[in-house]
Give the backbone structure.
Amino acid sequence: MLCNPPVDIAAELLEGLKHVSTPTATALLMGRGFNHGYLTGIPPQALAPGQVMVGRARTLRFLPLREDLVKTQYASTADRPHRDAIESIEPGEILVIDACGCREAGVVGDMFTRRVLERGGAGIVIDGSVRDLSTIRTVGLPLFCLGQHGAGINRALMSADYQVPVKLANTAVVPGDVLLGDQDGVVVIPPTELAAIVTAGIEHEVQERFTRLKLAEGYALHQAYPPDEQLRPAYLTWRQTQPEFERFPFAFAEP
């Protein structure tokens, strides 16, 4: 089975990733040769203003419903891959669900979402739909999915297995991958790339903050985006006033 190499991820890297936007992370991944990290067409459906989702993937895979197989699966409330996946979530993990792009059934609802939150999960991402979206939005757990449907799983799908490689949109997701989600969508980061993305990403975000100030002052794009030789010394001084400079010093290169 495809799997990630064992990589220890420091808590400060996951915390630092919260300060990097999905467009920045996507661009940095592309610069490192990863062109399919962004989950195309899977928008935020439950995300509070300013809320950012960061965590490692716990995967769950569905298949189109086959009546004889699903009848056996639903003979008991136990031993169903989708319930087993939820009950195995560790704190900080994100439930990543390959639902075949299906819009004809909701694969999680209010109760499943609450259980993910109660187990310490950091979010849910689905290439498919949910039930009870209006209630899910009151739970406080980040959710990214295609949309909603009034029916449950067994109208169109059956759960097959969990903690296996899955496909969401145009992206392969392997258990243990790192996900970043915000109002601009979701990007999947291989664990081996995380340190580089966080290091370059934090300074990029801070530098863009400086650029916005300079554009507001009337500087031209070719002067401020990125800061040219004239503005670079001012930026190096200014960035020391930003909270990220103190919290994540590893992200800032020496002049």
